[in-house]
Amino acid sequence: MNETLKVLESRRSCRKFDPSRAVSEEDIQAIVKAGTYAPSGMGKQSPIIIAVSNKEVRDQLSKINAQAMGTSIDPFYGAPVVLVVLANADIPTYIYDGALVMGNLMNAAESLGLASIWIHRAREEFEADFGKNILADLGIEGNYVGIGNCAIGYAASDLPKAAPRKEDYVYYLK
Ligand SMILES: Cc1cc2nc3c(=O)[nH]c(=O)nc-3n(C[C@H](O)[C@H](O)[C@H](O)COP(=O)(O)O)c2cc1C
Hints:
By secondary structure, this protein is α+β, with helices and mostly antiparallel strands. The protein is built from six helices and four strands.
């Protein structure tokens, strides 16, 4: 199996990150770059990525996310970096576009030996005043809606094996 196929198969969601291990700036840059090369409907590049390594911002997003979920746990499972993908809802393919960026981010992280997980409720984070202020402070205008949070870091322990793939996943018409 080639390296790309190995990465696509071996990536698993991490739910316990090692809080003592930071992610290098170089790795963050490489991962977000991979995200920007995801395909997008009509090549319109509707998504944007906000790479959060600032602990206060990360913790506040975690708090809003937890509130939206109705829990008090850290929804980012201790990950030190959260790559938030938003996409411009004025573009009809924005959800697909954003989901593909999320996939690239998670697979790029895996290729670099980093763990990751898609955490939902980015929409709620950026509907809150805190998220709106982040966009305003960055000078981002437009109808941007949160698609997902890609939490990244180093796994604190081995990740569980993939669930078996369901038998009726693929149909061939030959
Ligand atoms: C759209 C989407 C939203 C997800 N949201 C969460 C989440 O909020 N919390 C969480 O623990 N996992 C979340 N996950 C991770 C899935 O639970 C995980 O991908 C699934 O269990 C399969 O495991 P694997 O990623 O290891 O293959 C999400 C995944 C997707 C694709």
